[in-house]
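Checked the freezer inventory, then went back to the computational side. Two predictions to log before the end of the day. The first one is the construct we discussed on Monday; recording sequence and tokens without edits.
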Amino acid sequence: MRTAIYPGSFDPAHNGHLDVILRASHLFDRVVVAVARETHKDGLFSAQERTAMLREVVRGLRGVEVQAYAGLTAAFARALGAQVIVKGLRSVEDFAHEARQMLMNRHLGDVDTVFLMPSPLFAQVSSTLIREVTRLGGDASAFVPAPVARRLAARPGRGRTRRKG
């Protein structure tokens, strides 16, 4: 059985993520969407909320499951018996960042990385952009699966920006 993990913060998950998950599910027998508990991003949702949303989004997809994890991605992949890490690439800038991670993951966990480009419709969608639009009171629902759109709309304080400092 060929197992792949698709790690990320998924804060929030968007249609580009779902596109990569769907395509990975056609390439591998088992795809574990790995939700990073630790993230250095100014996020909207806890790891528990992100995991719950993704489980709702992928419900019914053959061979796809969602698990939260902490620590090294390579160690998590090894613990699951995954042979491959799946990463989505939108641009050359993404590749530069992901190539460094790919080399380190290979060193740490002897696991290969497969890069998938999202469909052109989702090539410029990012969680960072969706968070910013949401914090400023905009509607990003066209870029996220319905369960995520409902949670974004229900966020307390939606439309108010956080003050830093």
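The second is the one RB wanted added to the comparison set:
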Amino acid sequence: MPLAVGTKAPDFTLPTKTADGPRPVRLSENLGNKNTLLLFFPMVFTGTCTTEMCTVGNGLREYADLNAEVYGISGDNPFSQEAWAQKEKITVTLLSDYEHKVTKEYGVAYDSFLPQLNLGFEGVAKRSAFIVDKNGVIQYVEVHEDARELPDFEKIKAKLAELK
């Protein structure tokens, strides 16, 4: 079950891949300064995930104007994320939750992703959005069982505007 609005967001540190190599990103680095939009997505090199991250990436200035940092989180390793980001020109900071700990902690892991294929994809992130305010409290939650369904970015922006 996903974490609820009003819940203190669990802090985490996850790696991102930069031109200089892997770098840790800690959620609490934003506390006191800006709000954070966490976008959990199933996996890189897939159509809907590419659409989501490219759409958000093209609007990063708008999120910055709303005083929000945006992170995309998947269970892919940071090197796969980097290759995908380069191929698709994704500018969102991608965080690797390779062991699915954060995905499970936020309550958005599939028990089995694509079970009809029997590939053993356990712990894959459901497409989800969380807004964590400057105080570390979750202010918005949206979770989709259907991986093809995108978050409602207009509602997300409206909530960020309230929190600005």
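For RB: Residues 141 and 149 are 15 Å apart (CA to CA). The chain has a mean pLDDT of 93. Let me know if you want it refolded.
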